[in-house]
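Please, structure for the following, as tokens.
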Amino acid sequence: MKPKAVVLLSGGLDSATSAAQAIADGYDVIALSLNYGQRHKKELIAAKRVAEYLGIQEHFVVDVNLSQWGGSALTDDAIEVPTDGVQPGVIPVTYVPGRNTVFLAIALSLAEAKEAKAIYLGINAVDYSGYPDCRPEYLEVYQHLATLSSRAGLEGKAPRLVAPLVMDSKVDIVRRALKLGVPIATTWSCYQGGDKPCGVCDSCRIRDRALIEAGCPDLATPTARNLSHKL
């Protein structure tokens, strides 16, 4: 019997690649998606499709409404999603306060209940928007918490927190996704809640640039393909 792993599956490129990596690493994957009040709820549809494509049998979708108190352009319609590109050294308004901390807490609960050996997440500290909860230091400290805060941890069975993409560039992630057979076209990374990716938010810009550099311009947004903005 394969060991189990919980994968935080948002529906974006990074989380889908992380899920495919967990499968390639020999785990029986349990997907966990969070409906946290994000304006881009379409990512949850993408998560369902990615899970089905990868043959993941168990997929939990949990409601945790972080939009009640706002504080982020992703959860508060009164805050505009920035479209002027990533600003070095500046944490953008798309940062959701405590999001990964909350998500990992739920993943730990699920992992312990299912006796999973690992938790995979698609955080990235290289081509990202400066979020503090996407760094190796953050993951290291949370691993310590996972060991202290659960019965499994006290018994020496705390699940490992695995971030296979944490030090990859975005183009590296695209190449890994292609190698692992991730359905890239099915994933959703745009921060906006429209029917189609906007092509100008930070997430679209970073993704489009990587797709083009990896030789997959057909998977980039029309905005990027038309070179009508600087990626």
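The chain has a mean pLDDT of 92. The two ends are 45 Å apart (CA to CA).
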